[in-house]
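Retro notes, item 3 of 5
We never archived the inputs for the adenosine-3'-5'-diphosphate complex last cycle. Fixing that now. Sequence and ligand:
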Amino acid sequence: MPKFPGDMGLRLRRMSEFTARQEDVYVCGYPKSGGNWLWEICNMLLIGNTEYVKGNKMLAMLDFCDQEHFDKMRSPRCLSHHLQFEDIPPDVFRKGSKMVYILRNPKDVCVSHYHHHKGLVGVYDYHGIWPDYFEMWLEGKADYGKWSTHVKGWERGIKEHPTAPIHVIYYESLKRNFDSEVHRLAEFLCLPRNEPFFKRLSEKCDFAAMKKGKTKVGYSEEERQQWRNGEIGFLRKGVIGDWKNHFTTDQNKRFDKVYEKEMKDSKMHIVFE
Ligand code: A3P
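Structure as it came back at the time:
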């Protein structure tokens, strides 16, 4: 687990006692899958305003903040976490709060995670090199464990909870079919918005616009200082396929082999190209 402030062990043990609200929306997923992007979109839809949220997703994360912090927030809350399916607080199911699960090509997740660890010097001070990081990530020794365990756990959980309101969204599809994915999301959240609103949202959430605008309003000077050269890694490159600039042919073969073994029973439609 990352070195978050406070007693992380206690926070996780208390997760089962978390009090949810029916109108909450939870943005969930393995780290580096595009959670910050999706959280911004969900907030805009929920609030009905296309201004960037002042502040960032960290302050909406169940794994980062305590119950008292969330109790002070006004509804509708857009919260977030990287929890495994079985660790979702039971009250979320009791209240019937909506969840959105984002997935991304694990090769790009691995690369993005590497840059996250290298970039967030104020938290990790990680000096490893890519070939070593690659092995560590594949073995599930980076934050939040194995990607395949997370994804398969959610896949199984969704199947076993057919009435739980969970919407699955793929990073690649959000990138390639932004408008239709956001319309689908708005429908799931029961938040009909007009076309000029969707158009503004699409402009604001485009990577380049968001990198420029969100960095200003979403992160304090102190938060920026935690990152190498002040570059917020939650908005790094924002492309599909950056793994091709990092993986060697051998690493790619190794990755495919592990993927085939660990994901052979999965029906998730991961897009590798
Ligand atoms: P890269 O490191 O590949 O650039 P998370 O929010 O779950 O930590 O995921 C971070 C990843 O989402 C980063 O990937 C980041 O650049 C990407 N991302 C953030 N905002 C985005 C946007 N508006 N469009 C596309 N990708 C975005």
